Amino acid sequence: MKVMADDGMLSWDESVFRDEHVFEVDYLPETFHHRENQLDGLQYALRPAVRGSRPLNAMVRGPPGTGKTTAIQKLFAELDGRRGVRTVRVNCQVDSTRYAVFSRIFEAIFEYEPPASGISFKSLFEQITDHLTDEDEVLTVCLDDVNYLFYEGEASETLYSLLRAHETHAGAKVGVLLVSSDLDLDVVAELDSRVQSVFRPEEVFFPAYGESEVVDILDERVRRGFREGVVGPTVLDRVAELTAGTGDLRVGIDLLRRAGLHAEGRASERVEAEDVETAYEKSRHVHLSRRVRGLTDSERALLRVVAEYDGDRAGDVYEAFHDETDLGYTRYSEIVNKLDRVGLIEATYTTVEGRGRSRELSLAYDADAVRDRLD
Ligand SMILES: Nc1ncnc2c1ncn2[C@@H]1O[C@H](COP(=O)(O)OP(=O)(O)OP(=O)(O)O)[C@@H](O)[C@H]1O
Q1: pLDDT tens-place string over residues 275-317
Q2: For 22, which DSSP code?
Q3: Which domain range does residue 251 map to?
Q4: What distance in angstroms lies between residue 181's CA and the mean position of ligand 1's atoms?
Q5: Are residues 337 and 249 in the same domain?
Q6: 57 and 161: one domain?
Q7: What is the pLDDT of residue 14?
Q8: What is the pLDDT of residues 249-265, one digit of tens each?
Q9: Which annotated residues bind ATP (predicted)?
Q10: Most buried of 94, 152, 233, 269, CB within 10 angstroms?
């Protein structure tokens, strides 16, 4: 097929994109508007580190896709060049145990992974704290998506070690930033009392962006990512409306990219409303995709079974899960709780005549959309 370049149609070697990279998940935006108060709050907590003192601990909360990670990455990037300041961001969806968190810190400091044969936690911890005191470095650890440490029951142990580092190792200066997008989780209340007594964090809240803020932020992305005239104001407004409806900026960024690809698929030089509507079918599920991506094999197996038995009693689901994985009831129950807390399934109690209370499990998303992402 040969298409002419002057009839509003793209030729094969033309693209609607100027720089598609700006729509990728790991892209760190150059400009970061509408989060000035939050940046100030975080800077206040981190400032002592620059003077060689222990930073204040902070609790950062807000719904998904509201710029929490980006704010911390920006501030850490500014701090990283300074002598005596060390920052480490740990993604707890990936590293969800105390040992994994400290391995990540170790790796950031020594630039190699701790030996695979495994060294004790104590030794890992001591090598880190010895380094901090020998080099006179202040360490700030961001536990991003810390809610996952709670789902795994590892939060109190991990925090306790970090918060008490200066007591167990004189001279070690460690500050902690906790980031959670699970607004139902009362982080401080769920910690052991011995941790609560040493954890009095500064609170920084990231509210969802309003529609006009979304327009502002996405307009900047459009100018960097698309060639001039590809995305007009009406299309941008529609993207912002859909994005603000979900409260997650990630939806908008994904939507722009997919709508651009869809327009290209039609060999169109412009993104039109129809491209946005079609793309939204996929983009509205960015949460789902992210959540599924972070699951272990057994968690995926259970989700697959729930997708099959949607709305059935937990007992029946357990039978099917057990047949597939050979795992016992305790582990099964833990995974049910985790999938519930992550927001992938809903577990509700019902009273069944003659059987007492029983749990009914249903998917929080459309079953086809879930199955698509498990394949
Ligand atoms: N003010 C902003 N300006 C430009 N881009 C932004 C802004 N806020 C967020 N983003 C973009 O939105 C996406 C999501 O942001 P980020 O990962 O920082 O959110 P988050 O609150 O940490 O989300 P989660 O809680 O789900 O991890 C990123 O691609 C980021 O670049």
Answers
A1: 999 999 999 888 888 889 889 999 999 999 998 887 666 678 8
A2: G
A3: 209-284
A4: 12
A5: no
A6: yes
A7: 87
A8: 999 999 999 999 999 99
A9: 66-70, 209, 221
A10: 269
